[in-house]
Design brief:
Strand order of the largest sheet: 2-4-5-1-3
Distance between the termini: 21 Å
Helix content: 40-55%
Number of strands: 14
Amino acid sequence: MPDRSGTPFELWRRLLPLLFIILAVFLLFYTDLSPILSLRDPDFARQQKSLKQWTDEEEALAALPLDQYIARITQGSLIKVQGPEWENFFYQCFNSFNSGHPTKEWEHRLSPMDQEYAYHIHLFFHPSEAPLTTIPPSLKPGATYYLQLGENPARFIEVYYKQPELGPLGAAAPDIPGAFAYPLRRIGWFFLAAAALLYIALPWPRHQDHLVEYKRPRMILADILGFVLFSMFFVVPQAVVGSTQAALTEYILFTLVFWLMAAPGLLLVNWAIRLAKYRIFIGADQIRIFTLSGWQDFIFTQIDYVQPAHIRPPRWLIILSLLGGAPSPGTAGQGMLLSVSDSPGLYIHSQNGDSAYIWFSDQMGNVAMRNIDELRQVLLSAQIPLRPEVLDLRAVFPPER
C-alpha cells in the first residue's frame, strides 16, 4: 500500500500560527526607550502673564518687555534654524498647535493624554527625523531647548529632549504616543493576521474513499480551543505589565506563572496535530494507520485479535476538577462531566507484536470519525478474532499504540 497520508501541511498549519502568535505578542508589547523630542508652542506671552509673582525673580520677569522676557527664558538654550525645510516644518507644527489637532499624517505624534485633552498639545519626533537631524547632537536628555525661526517676527518652538520611562507595572507612560512607545505594534498585528491566514490558506487534505479520518469540524474546534487557551494566558503578563522587556526581566516570576497556565494550551495544540495526522486507509487485505510519528501496516491474516477499549480521564484530574469547582457550580459541573466521560474505541494487536488504538468516539460517545462503519465491516468480514473483554484505560489524551 503506497504512502498516501495526504497531510503534508497539517503539522505546519498548527505550528506556524503558534509561532506567529508568540512572536506577535512579543512585538505588540515591545517598548522603545530611546530618547525622543517633545515639541510644543511655548506661547511666551501667555506664559509671562501666568506668572504667579510669588518671588522677586518672577516679579522681575513679569515686568520685562516680551522680547526681553523671551531672551531671558531662552538664554543658553536657543537654537536658530533657517531654510525652506524648517519654514515648512514650523508651518505644520503651528497648524497643529493652533488647531489642537494635527493632520492625519501626524496623528501618531500625539500622546494618549493629548488625544483626550486637546489643549496645548505636544508633538513627538525621533531625533533622526528631518529636519531635526540638523540640530546640534549635544542635546542632553531631560533638558529643554528652543528653536527660533526668523528675526522680525521670530517664531519659537519649545523642544524637550525626553528619555522615555516605563510607568506603573512597566507600561509605557501615558504621555508618550503609542507609535513611539510600541514601534513594532503594526508588525505584531501583521503576524497575528498571518497566523489566521496561514491556518486557513494552507491546502486542506482531500476526503478520499476508503479513508477513515477525524471529522474536520472537530479538528477545527480542537485547534481553536488550543490556540485560545494558550494565547489567553501567554499574553496576560505582557498585557498587564505593558512591556515585553519588563515582563521578561523584573516581572519574570509573574510571567512564568501565567506561562505555566498556558502550557495546557500547548498540549491541546499537540493533540490537535495528532488528530489531524491520524488517518486509516482501508485496503483489500490490510489497513495502514498513519500517525504523527509514521505509519503501521496491519495485514488482516497477521492480526492476532481485536479488542474493544474504553478510555476515561485519570482520577487525579477528576478530583482536581471537582475540588477546583467547589466554589463554582459551573466548574463543579465540568468535574462531574469528566467523571462520567468515556471514549470507546478498538485495540488491534498483531502477531508480530505491533499494536494500535482506534478512538472513533468522543467522551460523550458521539462518532468522531468518517467512514468508521466501513472499517468495522472490513474487520468483521476478514474474520479477525475478537476478544470480548473491554480494555479499560485512564489517560488525559488517548494513546495511539
